[in-house]
Amino acid sequence: MIISTGNFLLNWNLRLKISLQAAEGLEYLHKVACPPIVHHNLKASNILLDSNWDARVSDFGLLSVNDMDSAGSMETDVYNFGTVLLEILSGRKAHDSEYAPPDIVEWALPSIRRGRAAAIFDRNAALPRNVEPLLKLADVAEIALKENPNERAGITDIVLWLDQIVKIGLTL
């Protein structure tokens, strides 16, 4: 899981950085790679961190958009990225039977939609004085997790929003 490595818990600024870099990696696959590549299996364990805590998207499918009927596939990648954002915010796994409900999306989205996103924040990490960037990150996750794929933001918009959030930064 992205949130902790061994006994080290990632702070909120690192989590924001990882969110942006993972989105940039997905944007590269969708918008820059020629032909475009759909990941097909984006999840937290497929976002690797190097020794500088830089995120790299890994384990993506080798089929290009042109090689398959990919209607909705990029949108599915965006949905899966929204799930990863919930993991980053909450410290929970995408599916964890120790919680009710076990699915992170079912658990977190109602709080975000009721304006209570702070209720899902990882309590194992000290919250910053200004949680506004984390609330904005939760809003991005909610947009990525729209049920209707046509209502989801594109990955380029998500990258722009995350870049703005990272620039705001956090006061810890």
Overall mean confidence score, pLDDT: 90
Poorly predicted sequence stretches spanning 5 or more consecutive residues: none
CATH superfamily: Transferase(Phosphotransferase) domain 1
CATH class call = Mainly Alpha
Q: In which order are the strands of the major sheet placed?
A: 1-2
**Quaternary form:** single chain
The CATH architecture category equals Orthogonal Bundle
Distance between the termini: 23 Å
Describe the structure.
This protein has 172 residues and is mainly α. It has a single domain, classed as Transferase(Phosphotransferase) domain 1 (Transferase(Phosphotransferase), domain 1, Orthogonal Bundle), CATH 1.10.510. 44% of the residues lie in helices and 6% in strands. The protein is built from five helices and four strands. It has a two-stranded antiparallel ribbon with strand order 1-2. α1 packs antiparallel against α5 and α4 runs antiparallel to α5. It is globular and about 40 Å long. The two termini are 23 Å apart. The mean pLDDT is 90.
